[in-house]
Amino acid sequence: MRIYQDPMEMVKEVERDLFEMGIRYQSATVQDMRVENDPGYRTIEISGYGYTLTGFDHDKMEEMIRYLGNNLPWAMEEASERLFPPDYDPNPGKAWEKDPGKWKRFLRDGVFSYSYAERWQHQLPYVLNELRLRPNSRQAVMTMYDVHQDMMNWGGRDRVPCSMTYQFILRDGRLTLIYNQRSCDFMRFFSTDVFITSALLLHVAAMIEAKPGRFIHFIGSLHAFAKDLEERRIF
Questions:
Q1: Across the chain, which distance is largest between two alpha carbons, in Å?
Q2: Cα distances (Å, whole numbers) of residue 221 to 79, 93, 163, 182
Q3: DSSP assignment of 156-178, as one string?
Q4: pLDDT tens readout for residues 11-23
Q5: 176 with 135: CB under 8 angstroms?
Q6: What is the predicted pLDDT for the residue at 146?
Q7: CA distance linking residue 30 with residue 51, whole number of Å
Q8: SS3 content of the chain, % helix, strand, coil (to 5)
Q9: How far apart are the C-alpha atoms of 88 and 86, rounded to whole Å?
Q10: CB contact at 8 A, 40 and 224
């Protein structure tokens, strides 16, 4: 597994790996859509991908988001909503209003099938308590996947979380965060996933008076779609 100190170097190397070594196929579903007949969802993919990041320079994190064309105002608002319980309902929350063109279509009767903020906020206090009481714990894990709800949404019935687990390991005063994703759309979400999860690492480290250590990222399916790659002539 490669180790990076510079987030911009990391994102460019991950991009190179995906485009040089990825396999091509036609996706059947994306989020809550059936796309098996849509050539825009021809897919390039690497399975079982991982890397480690040890540098969290804020300016370079922002540069990484802009490099992939993602929405920085949404990412910053979303991070805040997940980390700090708002005085409004975390589902749907308000971060989505920073980019309604991307998120409004997923609302059902005014709410999302899930929100990261609502699931984080139920678990984060337990993680902080565990790390304070038992700093050598291996059990400080948050999960996004609800087996009772999310399995029922397979096959495009509704959205299913792309993030699976966040495990925190504190050793020698440094906090490591191991982030597992089942799926990550490189062009639309990779940089914001890294930005927001790095913010989680920095927040938890500050709350338990530890130093940030490593961000270890495992992705089951790292992919990009033809509709987002027209200028790159990947397909």
A1: 53
A2: 23, 28, 11, 6
A3: GTS---SEEEEEEEEETTEEEEE
A4: 999 999 999 999 9
A5: no
A6: 87
A7: 25
A8: 45, 25, 30
A9: 5
A10: no
Looking at residue 234, its pLDDT comes to 79
**Predicted pLDDT at 157:** 73
Number of alpha carbons in the 13 Å side-chain half-sphere of residue 64: 28
Looking at residue 204, its pLDDT comes to 98
- State the average pLDDT for the chain: 95
Tokens 């825009």 identify what position?
A: 40
Q: Tokens 């490669």 correspond to what residue? A: 2
The ranges of the chain with pLDDT < 50 are none
What is the residue type of 210? A
Tokens at residue 121, please? Answer: 């906020």
Q: Which of 169, 196, 202, 171 is nearest to 181 (CA)?
A: 196
Query: Architecture of 55-218 per CATH?
Result: 2-Layer Sandwich (3.30)
Q: Which two tokens stand for residue 206?
A: 């500050």
